[in-house]
Amino acid sequence: MDQGNFRKGLFMAMGAGICWGTTGLFSTMLFQQGFDPLSVASARIFFTTLVFLFFFLPGRVSRLAISTKELAFLAIFSFIGVTLFNYFYLQAVQQVGISVAVVLLYTSPLFVVFFSSVVLGEPITRVKLISIGLLLSGTIFVVQAYQVALLRINSTGVLLGLGAGFTFGLLSVFGKIPLVKAAQLTKMFYMFLFGSFFFALFHPPWRLFSHDISFISAFALAGLVLVATFLAYTLYILALSYLEAGKASIAVALEPVAAIVFAFLFFGEVLYADQYLGVLLVLCGIVLISR
Q1: Alpha helices, DSSP H only, in the chain?
Q2: 3-state class of 228 per DSSP?
Q3: 73-76, long-range: CB within 8 Å, 24+ apart, which pairs?
Q4: DSSP letters for 162-223
Q5: Is 116:246 a contact under the CB 8 Å cutoff?
Q6: 48-65: pLDDT as tens digits
Q7: What is the rounded distance in angstroms from the CA atom of residue 230 to the CA atom of residue 29?
């Protein structure tokens, strides 16, 4: 692959990780306004679908043309990669806490490397495995998941967290599967459309409006939808046009690093020496796969 395109894809994936890292910032602002996690997640998917639709309206409606077979395929992967992912991750946070949930989520590159090898024929290299080891170790330090006194561990929560990692990882593999010939952004629109429908079946997005919408909550919701979801997913799905799925899933692991930086900047959270070490390990993992 052309080195210029590779670097472009790498920066896109890292940019997606930074955008996803704002999820905690905007979500915390909404939680502080009294909104519950499931309502936030449902509204996040629904409004992102509207943003994708708005993107296609000015002269791009023809791009939405897609076969019934492709729609069925997208519906299945949407249920797995959007609906189940959001459900598993939120439930894992509730069961085992945010620190363990984040570490379990970032087992996703292991799933991606394995399935991309089986499905896409991408090689499992020593560099990829070392990079994954570095980012997992770094994530543990970043979120301080080794502090036993702060952990809440139970088998159900661990399985939910691994389920989140598995379903999140499928997005990378899905983005490379040639069964759907539509453009990448068209795929993402239908993914969110179906995901919004499935999520609404058990938690409708309009429940969010049972609360008063203040300027702060409207700003946070807009940031969650436009930056942490629409821009993040768009950058990532475009990055898959230039990168192997395994390498893209490693580069996007910049997310927990970005999350703690935003927490430091906007919520005054203190960063400790072990967290700086974690940041360094994650960056080393990303630099390793960029060589």
Answers
A1: 3-20, 23-32, 37-56, 68-78, 85-96, 98-105, 108-120, 126-142, 155-174, 184-202, 215-225, 232-239, 245-251, 255-267, 273-289
A2: helix
A3: 73/179, 73/180, 74/180, 74/187, 74/190, 74/191, 74/194, 75/190, 75/194
A4: HHHHHHHHHHHHHTT-TT--S-HHHHHHHHHHHHHHHHHHHS-GGGGGGS---HHHHHHHHH
A5: yes
A6: 999 988 877 666 667 777
A7: 19
The single-letter code of the amino acid at 289 is I
* Paired tokens of 63: 């791009």
The domain ranges of the chain are 3-289
- Only one residue has tokens 């704002």, namely 22
Closest alpha carbon to 205 in 36, 60, 76, 89? 36
Encoded amino acid at 68, one letter: T
| ∠ Cα 246 226 245 (to 5°) | 10
pTM for the full predicted model: 0.85
231-264 pLDDT, tens per residue?
A: 998 898 888 888 888 888 888 888 878 877 887 7
222 CB-side CA count, 13 A: 7
Structure tokens, 75: 């519906």
Q: Of the given ranges (140-149, 162-171, 187-196, 276-285), which has the lowest mean pLDDT?
A: 140-149
Q: Looking at beta carbons, which pairs linking 52-60 to residues 24 or more positions away fall under 8 Å? A: 52/185, 52/188, 52/189, 52/192, 52/193, 52/230, 53/189, 53/193, 55/185, 55/189, 56/186, 56/189
User: How far apart (Å, rounded) are the C-alpha atoms in residues 259 and 26?
Assistant: 11
Please report, as a single letter, which amino acid is at residue 23: T
For residues 98 and 143, is the Cβ–Cβ distance under 8 A?
A: yes
